[in-house]
Structure prediction request, 236 residues.
Amino acid sequence: MVELDPIRLKVLKMIQDSGTDLKNASLAIGRNAAYLHQYVTRGTPKVLPEDAREALAAHLGVDEEELRPRESGRPPAPKGEEEPDQPAAPRRRRSGEGFARIAELDVRASAGPGAFHDGPEEATAFWLFPEPVVRHEFRTRSDDLRMITIEGDSMEPLIASGDRILVDTSQRVPVPPGIFVIWDGMGVVAKRVEHVPNSDPPMVVITSVNPQYQTYERLADEVNIIGRVVWMARRL
Prediction:
C-alpha cells in the first residue's frame, strides 16, 4: 500500500461522501472495477490521466481542478503577487456540467427486452457524452439511451459482432425506416425495419444486411421494437 498523498486522500473522501465506492466509481468513469482501488492503494497509475480525471469529476459533480495534482518544485507566490512569466490559466467549466451519463447494458445476460427499461440500476458501466451531442446529434434525452454490444453477423459488414451501438429507446416506430434493436423471441438483435406503406393491418419488413439471412414480413404488433440505433463504435 502506498502512502496516500493529498490528492488520493481527497479522491477517497469525495467518493465516500458521494455515497458510492471505488468499484462503482471506476465503472462509472469507464474503467475496470479495480482501477481506482489500484490508483489509491497501489499508486497505479501515479497520476490520473486527464480523461479519467474529467470523468471522475463529472461523476462526483466537482471541478476537475480539485483532482489535479499540484506541480512540485516551485514555491507558492506570496499572497497578492503573481508568479512571473506565468500566463493566467483559462477559466475552466466545471466538469459534470455538459456531460451526460449513458448506461451500458449486458443484454446477453438479460432474459428479455425488459432490461432496456429497468434503468441504470442494471448498467454494467457508464459512458460520458457531451450533452450537445445528445441533444443535437442524437436528438434525444440521455435517459432514453442505452449502450449494448452486438453479437452475431446478421448485420455485417455494416455492424459487426463486438461493435457497440447506442439505442434510443424512445424511438420504437419504424418511420422513417432504419436500424432498430428488436426482441425476436430468442434474444435481442439488430435489424433494418421498415413499415409497409398502406398495409392494413400494419406490416413491417425486417431485413439483415448479411445476404445469408432471409428478409421477412411481420405484423407490426408482433414485432417488439426496443429502440432505434443512433450511433456505433468499433474497436480497430
Observations:
- The chain has a mean pLDDT of 80.
- Strands lie at 99-104, 125-130, 145-149, 164-168, 178-183, 188-195, 203-207, 216-219, 224-233.
